[in-house]
Amino acid sequence: MTGPVPVVIHSDARQTITKAAGHAAPLEAGGLLLGWWDSGRVIVHAAVEVVDPAASGTSWIRRENLAQQALDRAMAALEHPWMGYVGDWHSHPAPCGASVQDLKSIRMASRAYPQPLLLIVHRSDGVLDIRAARRGRSQIVLEVTA
Ligand SMILES: [Zn+2]
Questions:
Q1: Which of 4, 20, 46, 123 is packed most tightly, with the most Cβ within 10 A?
Q2: How far apart are the CA of 129 and the centre of ligand 1, in A?
Q3: In Å, what is the CA distance from 12 to each residue of 9, 51, 58, 64?
Q4: How much distance in Å is there from the Cα of 90 to the middle of ligand 1?
């Protein structure tokens, strides 16, 4: 299937990302996107922060142990039967969106999933740069409301 990937981002997820980005600035913050896939759409229901103790102003790395713990906690708390990992988010303390390296990472990660994986980059001007990749290839994103 080709064509844009419709993405729904709930306000809870948006708020979590914006708040965490604000707290972390001038360092990067990041974490996981939780939601589900529904007839071709990616629904981002929630975002969780995963602290990178070594985060800098230009780097946030997903620490796998901490990410798994955050995922387990969030899944237990959210108690939604469809809820799962649908991608990552991180902040840039500058008004720039996803970097070449960011896009490469999401393309690589997407090879392990049959459905599109998302990357949301929160820019310092508040804009969310929403990207998707599916089976190793970048996809065009169409943000839609639920
Ligand atoms: Zn980045």
A1: 20
A2: 10
A3: 8, 19, 25, 24
A4: 6
CATH number at residue 73: 3.40.140.10
Residue 98: domain span? 5-143
The tens digit of pLDDT for each residue in 19-60 reads: 999 999 999 999 999 999 998 899 999 999 999 999 999 999
**Residue 41 exposed, middle or buried by CB count within 10 Å (0-12, 13-18, 19+):** middle
Is the pTM value of this prediction over 0.90?
Answer: yes
How many residues are listed for the chain in this entry? 146
Give me the residues paired with residue 134 across strands: 137
Neighbours of ion ligand 1 (CB under 5 A): 99, 102
The candidate with the shortest Cα–Cα distance to 35, out of 22, 18, 51, 16, is 16
The span from the CA of 13 to the CA of 44, in Å, is 7
Q: In total, how many domains does the chain have?
A: 1
CA–centroid distance, residue 121 to ligand 1 (Å): 7
